[in-house]
Amino acid sequence: MKKALALVMAGVMALSLAACGGSTANSGSTTSTGSTGSQNTNTSGTEITLWTYPIGSWQDSATVDGFIAKFNEKHPDIKVNVEYLDYTNGDDKVTTAIEAKNTPDIIFEGPERLVTNWGAKGLMVDLSDLWTEEATADISQTSEAVVNACKSADGKYYEYPMCMTAHNMAINYELFEKAGALQYIDEETRSWTTDNFVKALEAIKESGLAATPAIVYCGGQGGDQGTRALVNNLYSGTYTNADHTAYTANSEANVKALQLLQDLNKQGLVNFDPAAQASDELQMFANGTAAMTFCWNASNEATYASQVNFTPYAMNFPSDDGKAELCGGIWGFGIFDNGDQAKIDAAKTFIQFICDDATQGPASVQATGFFPVRASFGNVYEGTENAERMATFATFLPNMGDYYNVTGGWTEQRTAWWNMLQEIGGGTDVKTAADKFVTTANAAIAK
Prior knowledge:
Blueprint: H1 10-20, E1 29-32, E2 47-52, H2 61-74, E3 79-84, H3 90-99, E4 106-109, H4 111-119, H5 133-142, H6 144-149, E5 160-166, E6 168-172, H7 173-179, H8 194-207, E7 215-217, H9 224-234, H10 252-266, E8 271-273, H11 278-286, E9 292-296, H12 298-304, E10 312-315, E11 328-335, H13 341-356, H14 360-368, E12 371-372, H15 387-394, H16 410-425, H17 430-445
Parallel strand pairs: 2-3, 2-4, 7-8
Antiparallel strand pairs: 1-3, 4-11, 5-11, 5-12, 6-9, 6-10
């Protein structure tokens, strides 16, 4: 029996109703100048550094420079330096900075890094003062899961969130149509069953219209939310237990799913690619080599829009009962505790402006290509050229499942996951590989 995540989406529902009628970051840095906001300390002349992972247009220096310029209009005495990370070596760069005691003041990413990893290690500032009664109530209207994901087990908030989404997959609509595979999807709900997923793969292979129907990328952790969702949905498995204290990828349901994928690999219906990460799979989807992608969301659609000559048709993951539970994404800001209160206060001022300002907040969210965590922001895409497209992606939000990314040992289990997929793709006994993964992942929780 699947457990639905309770989502109350005041602003998002406007998008849903309307629907009814990875990448690589830029390199280099940029600087600007800026001052104190609601923090009651003197931050005049303070210099802070922001590191941002490639989240939508937050990888684009011109966009971020523009936001900093707006910040400087209100806070002209705080200097903000920016450095852009990517998902290939960003984590290594942060680890090196931690070891060298040279971390940035602000970092833009999600709870699995800010809370479960760096926060749990005592490296982050408690942001509870930013979580005012008003802010908490506003975010709670959108999703209690967001509120819970941003705080540690002892109640400290290590992330202040800005946006969220539900990750999905996509198919090449015209290719499916020519292959006679559209009959296997429910276009009204953008869903399909596991049995029909297999039938679609067979139809695509027989048509010869794509070099490979689907790719199980396992060359690294990039985009692993896609492979996790694929495995968990095929037979309604779960990735962790309900209280996020243990990994459960070796459950009967998950082993059955992994066995199916291994069998499909042997039949040439999917390709376990040990050299490909999500960015590679996305590129193969964009150029028509693969008939589908397991790593899709509104931001990726915008990124690859200029490259495709077909309709990328967003879909729920296939499930035995046709009702998918999607992995969610939550992004926001954390502050590394570098021991300088003026820098901490300046960083909080910047975060509040970017996330909460009535004008800047919606613009900040739009740049991500995702949806606001603040219900009061409503439909931030209304009246924009992206209104119709984003309304489609909003319909996936109610299918967001458990946000298990806050389980301990998250960094270690991500490596163990793609190693397990490589082993299974190479022919290793599925149960043996899944048991090995769970042993490794659960051992990491205790570290």
